[in-house]
């Protein structure tokens, strides 16, 4: 096992292209001890595919952040609705939350949502004309999933833009004060929204969710935290998925031309697009609750463990020629949505949104191209998610 003296995820070039760094780390050892922060603390970073799969399913790796930080001083002030979600819990609490969340995104439920998703895409493209310039991120990749998830939560249209902006701050801000403030904005807003729904019985989407929460044994605070998770996780990664996928296709003209000529291939291409440039670069926080061994490395109890799907999805041991976008590849083993009990329950919805958006774009504007050179394109300053802040295109 090698030990990095500097945090490799903070390298200036990492945001632009993390894959050379991931390759170097994996070739050195797919499980490495790396520094975190300036206090002399260390975490374990996992970049190999088989090692990442094992870590995702190991019950000795806990997501209970409150347990890890209970005896550690902290100056953070996250709203409880953000800091205590399904993403930051273990069974049995996690099981109760997931039992409520999963039915919202079954294949059948998503099939029912497809006409609505299609209408949203049509509305967003109403003013698009050949020869005009758009920003795919601002004009499609952000508003599409935001609109869908806010519809599921019953968020009024007038509040959606501000709520989405605060959600992005949770991932992209480099200032902890901004992140904490954003969490309180979202938590307070959703608390009020839930309280209003409870006070005014009805048959809207939020009322249905709250009934499911009550039937699943979630209390009022837990209902708010589930709503917060659905809001934040329900659009951020889908935005990055769509932006990364379009850019990957524009950089691979043969693959793009193939999908242009046969849009029916798009659903089957989604796994490879997710593998090639995963919207989740490093999974959310885990820590070891006992001594364990992953791959050939012993991880002692009480240490953070960082699983990097972005690296695992380019592991040549699982995906030969991993830096090549190959639409014929069987990429179903990718880890872009995670693995095990914490695998993203909203994956079917994200796939449907991306499929409908890509199909509509390539059908209506088959010769669309980048307005500016592909490099450098602005990216979010986050090591957890990987996505663009803008993607200027000329429609054609």
Question: What overall geometry do the principal axes of the alpha carbons give?
Answer: globular
Helix content: 40-55%
Low-confidence residue ranges: none
- Note the beta-strand portion: 5-15%
Question: Which sequence of strands runs across the widest sheet?
Answer: 1-2-8-5-3
Please give the number of β-strands: 10
The span between the termini is 51 Å
Write the layout of secondary structure elements.
Layout: H1 19-28, E1 31-36, E2 41-46, H2 49-57, E3 61-62, H3 65-69, H4 80-83, H5 93-101, H6 107-124, E4 133-135, H7 136-141, H8 143-153, H9 157-172, H10 176-199, H11 205-215, H12 220-233, H13 236-250, H14 253-261, H15 266-276, E5 286-288, E6 292-294, E7 297-299, E8 304-307, H16 309-312, H17 347-364, E9 369-370, E10 392-394
Parallel strand pairs: 2-8
Antiparallel strand pairs: 1-2, 3-5, 4-10, 5-8, 6-7, 9-10
Describe this structure in words.
- By secondary structure, the protein is α+β, with helices and mostly antiparallel strands.
- 49% of the residues lie in helices and 9% in strands.
- It has 17 helices and 10 strands.
- It has a 5-stranded mixed β-sheet with strand order 1-2-8-5-3, sandwiched between helices.
């Amino acid at each position: 096992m090698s030990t990095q003296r500097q945090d490799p995820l903070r390298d200036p070039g990492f945001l632009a292209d993390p894959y050379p760094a991931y390759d170097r780390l994996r070739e050195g050892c797919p499980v490495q001890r790396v520094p975190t922060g300036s206090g002399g603390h260390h975490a374990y970073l996992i970049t190999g595919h088989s090692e990442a799969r094992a870590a995702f399913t190991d019950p000795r790796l806990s997501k209970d952040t409150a347990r890890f930080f209970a005896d550690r001083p902290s100056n953070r002030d996250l709203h409880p609705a953000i800091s205590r979600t399904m993403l930051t819990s273990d069974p049995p609490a996690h099981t109760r939350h997931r039992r409520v969340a999963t039915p919202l995104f079954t294949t059948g439920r998503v099939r029912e949502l497809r006409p609505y998703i299609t209408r949203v895409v049509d509305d967003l493209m109403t003013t698009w004309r050949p020869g005009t310039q758009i920003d795919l991120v601002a004009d499609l990749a952000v508003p599409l999933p935001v609109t869908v998830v806010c519809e599921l939560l019953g968020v009024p249209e007038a509040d959606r833009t501000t709520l989405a902006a605060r959600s992005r701050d949770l991932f992209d801000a480099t200032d902890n004060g901004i992140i904490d403030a954003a969490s309180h904005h979202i938590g307070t807003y959703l608390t009020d929204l839930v309280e209003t729904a409870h006070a005014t019985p009805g048959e809207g989407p939020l009322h249905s969710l709250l009934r499911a929460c009550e039937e699943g044994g979630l209390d009022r605070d837990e209902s708010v935290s589930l709503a917060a998770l659905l809001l934040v996780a329900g659009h951020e990664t889908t935005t990055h998925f769509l932006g990364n996928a379009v850019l990957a296709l524009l950089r691979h003209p043969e693959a793009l031309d193939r999908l242009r000529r046969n849009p029916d291939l798009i659903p089957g291409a989604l796994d490879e697009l997710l593998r090639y440039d995963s919207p989740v670069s490093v999974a959310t926080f885990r820590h070891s609750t006992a001594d364990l061994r992953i791959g050939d490395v012993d991880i002692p109890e009480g240490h953070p463990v960082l699983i990097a799907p972005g690296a695992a999805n380019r592991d040549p041991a699982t995906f030969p020629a991993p830096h090549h976008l190959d639409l014929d590849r069987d990429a179903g083993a990718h880890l872009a949505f995670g693995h095990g009990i914490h695998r993203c329950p909203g994956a079917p919805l994200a796939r449907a949104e991306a499929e409908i958006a890509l199909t509509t774009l390539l059908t209506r504007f088959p010769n669309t191209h980048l307005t500016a050179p592909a490099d450098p394109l602005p990216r979010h300053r986050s090591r957890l998610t990987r996505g663009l802040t803008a993607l200027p295109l000329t429609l054609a």
